[in-house]
Each structure stands twice: as structure tokens, then as C-alpha cells.
Inverse folding.
């Protein structure tokens, strides 16, 4: 069975400090994994995706994530938080048609709300 | 990038009435659109898959007679919540696909009083 667990429903950091959003997954197959960000009243935006080409994936806005098969984890990090990073973040798993495609069925974590203090 | 819109962004309706939510792909044609539902503090749950010109495929546990989906064109899908009740209050999100990616709409907040 496929599932995604985001370990923290809410994370608060100060501007300029590192961000860590945790995600664990369960999959019967080699997964495609994604992180999406959702700002208020906006659609979900793809931050980055893991497609097995490299375990350390770099995304937009300075975010990156590392796929660790032994830990079944795909944590999202950023060295230095910015006020504009405050949003809801979703870890997503796909059993999609092609590696890295989001055309297949998507399994969402419940989201982590990131708050950034000035 | 590809843009998906939803209308309305918020709607309040009385119990027993029906509400229609539109999902549009603004700058691309989408053969497939998905409808998700998101409860507070919970993840997005897939409700149905909608293919242009054919009947929607509903996930287990989703009442097709209650959540009517119409995908009449390559740029528009509609979700109608019929005879809405307070338990239908939720955040509804659609997505539209290109050949490789899903693009998500901003969501519609439905409140049934």
C-alpha cells in the first residue's frame, strides 16, 4: 500500500534559520516523490521531484530534498528561511506512468504549515 | 507555466441546495482533470477522475449521484454538489493534466449552513 506521512503539522522558524520539513513514505514500488507548496488562495505549486536519477534533489526557491530509501524518507530542507516561504507544504507520492510524472494517482501527506518569524 | 482556475473561490449555501464549481485550464487543453477534497488539517483525497467526453471515474466511497462531474470540453470541468449538507463543507481542489504533469487550481471553499 502507498502512503505518505508528514511528521509535523506545523513548523515555526525564524527568518534566516534552516528549514526542515519531514516526510516518510510507504510504497510497494520504487516511488516518484514530490514536494508541493500551497500559498493562501493559490494552487499547489511543484517545488521539486525525485525520479531516481539522483538522491539529492534541488528545487525552486532554494529548497532541496534527499531521498533515503533505507529510512523511507524524503525530507525537505532550506538553509535559510525567508518570510515568503510561509505556506503549506505537501509531500506527495505517485504511482505514475513514467518516472517523475504526476499523471498517475497521487497520494498526499496531510501537509505541514510553515510559519516564518521576522 | 500552465494555469488552472476555479470559480467560485468561496461559496456559502443553505442545506438542501446545489452548488456548481468550475475548473478551467486557462492556457492549455486538458484531457484529464481530477477533483480532490481537503478536510481541515488533512491531506487531499482524490474524489474522481474526469476525462473529456466520457463519464467520470469515482473513487470508492464517493457518491456519484451527489457529486456530479461534467467534463464537456478540453478546458472545463464542473463539479456539482447536489442537495448539499453541512458535512459536505470542505475545500475542493481540481487539477488538470498536460501530457506529463498535473496542475492544480487554487481551490473552492464550500460552506453549507
Amino acid at each position: 500500500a502507498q502512503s505518505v506521512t508528514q511528521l509535523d503539522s506545523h513548523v515555526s522558524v525564524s527568518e534566516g534559520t534552516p528549514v526542515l520539513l519531514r516526510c516518510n513514505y510507504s510504497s510497494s514500488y520504487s516511488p516518484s516523490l514530490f514536494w508541493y507548496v500551497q500559498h493562501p488562495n493559490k494552487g499547489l505549486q511543484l517545488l521539486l521531484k525525485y525520479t531516481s536519477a539522483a538522491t539529492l534533489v534541488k528545487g525552486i526557491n532554494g529548497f532541496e530534498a534527499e531521498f533515503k530509501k533505507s529510512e523511507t524518507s524524503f525530507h525537505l530542507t532550506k538553509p535559510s528561511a525567508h518570510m515568503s516561504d510561509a505556506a503549506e507544504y505537501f509531500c506527495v507520492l505517485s504511482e505514475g506512468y513514467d518516472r517523475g510524472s504526476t499523471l498517475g494517482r497521487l497520494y498526499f501527506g496531510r501537509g505541514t504549515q510553515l510559519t516564518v518569524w521576522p | 507555466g500552465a494555469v488552472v482556475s476555479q470559480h467560485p473561490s468561496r461559496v456559502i449555501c443553505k442545506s438542501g441546495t446545489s452548488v456548481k464549481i468550475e475548473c478551467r485550464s486557462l492556457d492549455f487543453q486538458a484531457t484529464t482533470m481530477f477533483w480532490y477534497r481537503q478536510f481541515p488539517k488533512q491531506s487531499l483525497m482524490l474524489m474522481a477522475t474526469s476525462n473529456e467526453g466520457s463519464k467520470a471515474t469515482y473513487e470508492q466511497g464517493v457518491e456519484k449521484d451527489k457529486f456530479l462531474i461534467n467534463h464537456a470540453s478540453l478546458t472545463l470541468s464542473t463539479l456539482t454538489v447536489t442537495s448539499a449538507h453541512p458535512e459536505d463543507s470542505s475545500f475542493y481542489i481540481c487539477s488538470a493534466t498536460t501530457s506529463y504533469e498535473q496542475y492544480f487550481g487554487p481551490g473552492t471553499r464550500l460552506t453549507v449552513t
